[in-house]
Amino acid sequence: MPNSNENSPLVVLGAGVMGTAIAALAVGHGHPVTLIDTSVEARAAAPDTVALHLRTARLMGALPHDRPPGELTVEDALNAIAAVTAVIEAVTEDPKRKAEVLADLASAARPGTLLISNTSGVPIDELADAVPRPEDLVGVHFMNPAYVIRTVEVVLGPRSGEAAAESTRELLSGLGRRGIVVGDGAGFVTSRLLHRMLNDAIAVVHEGRATPETVDALMRDCIGHRTGPLATADLIGLDNLADSLRVMHERTGDPALRPSELLLDKVRQGLLGRKSGRGFYDYQETMQ
């Protein structure tokens, strides 16, 4: 498998919240990045979104100051895939959609190209059924915002190859990320633990026992949770949280992972958190 470090070109598929943040992380470390999305609106917004991420990351000291940024290219097709050593899929947390996208990527990429699925909960071995060379597929769960949080969850499925695992280690090291390898399975470690807590916090609000502000204050000041669970849910995106919980609930049968009705109501109303301007909190002033 080719070396995926040393400013090699990358492809990121999906120009949503995570895709643009991952693209900014890679560009900020000097990698040329081709960001692919079929949505005209997403492609039009992507350059400004990535530029905003880069400015924010630099202000926070989260990117190297001695490295010129890589070039960002935004496209609507898979034309660039044959020329790269690594592809990161970052579409919505829908197992069927992810499988379809990975199948397309695998058919367009050269054998041995590192295929990374950025997923918070879909088992990698399940996704591996969609690609002809499952040994090339690895899961990496980048946390949001990807250009700030330096530790990521790495998921090696039972069919992930050693060459892919090594290329993933090299790529993450070059991006200044620390990868921690965990076993495959719905929700892996972080989502299996965190999303259950977020779902419970939303249920407490739904039951009328506390406001979002009260829940977050108690969890921050008594338990030491940095942002509070409801603010964290808004940052993740309430639609993404609901999708991840649904994936885990369907695969484990654990009733604690069934998405809260309040969460589903928010999603139906389009109140998705920070990215839509409102969720459990109102962000519209900060977006202006």
From TrEMBL:
The UniProt record lists the keyword Oxidoreductase: yes
Alphabetically ordered keywords of this record: NAD, Oxidoreductase
InterPro entries hit by this protein: 3-OHacyl-CoA_DH (IPR022694), 3-OHacyl-CoA_DH_NAD-bd (IPR006176), 3HC_DH_C (IPR006108), 6-PGluconate_DH-like_C_sf (IPR008927), 6PGD_dom2 (IPR013328), NAD(P)-bd_dom_sf (IPR036291)
Statement: the UniProt record of this protein carries the keyword Zinc: no
Pathway: Lipid metabolism; butanoate metabolism
GO MF, any single term: NAD+ binding
Domain 3-hydroxyacyl-CoA dehydrogenase NAD binding residues, every copy: 11-184
3-hydroxyacyl-CoA dehydrogenase C-terminal domain span: 187-283
Site (Important for catalytic activity): H141
Gene3D superfamilies according to UniProt: N-(1-d-carboxylethyl)-l-norvaline Dehydrogenase, domain 2 (1.10.1040.10), NAD(P)-binding Rossmann-like Domain (3.40.50.720)
Residues the entry annotates as binding NAD(+): G14, A15, G16, V17, M18, G19, D37, E93, K98, S120, N144, K275
BP GO terms, sorted: fatty acid metabolic process
Family to which the UniProt record says this protein belongs: Belongs to the 3-hydroxyacyl-CoA dehydrogenase family.
Annotated PANTHER family: 3-HYDROXYACYL-COA DEHYDROGENASE FAMILY PROTEIN (PTHR48075), 3-HYDROXYBUTYRYL-COA DEHYDROGENASE (PTHR48075:SF5)
Name of this protein: Dehydrogenase
Organism, scientific name: Streptomyces spiramyceticus
Gene for this chain: bsm39
